[in-house]
Amino acid sequence: MDDVMHLEKFNHDISRDLQVDAAAFQHKCSQDLDFFLVLDLEGKIEILEFPVLMIDAKTMAFVDLFHRFVRPSKMSEQHINKYIEGKYGKFGVDRGNWDLKTKVPDQCKVSQIKLPPYFMEWINLKDVFYNFYKPRKSEATGMMGMMKNRQVPMFGSHHLGIDDTKNITRVLQRMLADGARVQITARRNPDSRNVQYLFEDRI
Questions:
Q1: Do 102 and 181 form a contact (C-beta atoms < 8 A)?
Q2: What is the top-level taxon of the source organism (predicted)?
């Protein structure tokens, strides 16, 4: 985070990008959680980028940031280079429950560590968005569709994890301002690892 080249390439002045208008509090409702951790992992075979933004659920304000690029342990140098071409090039990136339902447990296996208990439940923002705004399903299947539906302009580069995380956070702020109640959408059974989805209508 102190590397000059890193700071030139990746803007970490998050408070500027995620400013909240006082008028936004007009429709806001109370939330069950005190904070939201917004993440958008990048990497399909192994996690390559791990950005997380913390947002205060009451004020919608930016609180803190974690951002790391991760060197994969099981991928060849050639595969890594192909993977990151053009920001993850031809391999693509899946969306939705994939981050916490699939990728984090897979990465824990590769890294030979136990899945931490805080990854046992999560919010798929797309499901909350779909149930709150009732858009066409195609407008809630990804970050770009949600931003377009709410007319939220995009910042930065799509598929760069830190920029996608900031943009998803801006969608979250908009939802909170519009009065959405953002709830847990999925839980993992710690014994069987089966996932229970808590929303009947989901993406």
A1: no
A2: Eukaryota
Q: Which one of the listed residues 67, 79, 121, 159 is annotated catalytic?
A: 159
Sign for the pseudo-dihedral over CA of 113, 116, 121, 123: negative
**Is 46 noted as a catalytic residue in this protein?**
no
Catalytic: which of 8, 42, 46, 79? 42
Which helix (H) or strand (E) covers residue 64, if one does?
strand 62-69
**Rounded to whole angstroms, what are the CA distances from 80 to 46, 74, 75, 105?**
10, 10, 6, 20
Q: Is 42 a catalytic residue?
A: yes
Overall pTM > 0.70: yes
Residue 42 φ then ψ, to 5°: -120, 135
Rounded-to-integer distance, Cα 20 and Cα 55, Å = 11
Q: Which helix (H) or strand (E) holds 2?
A: none
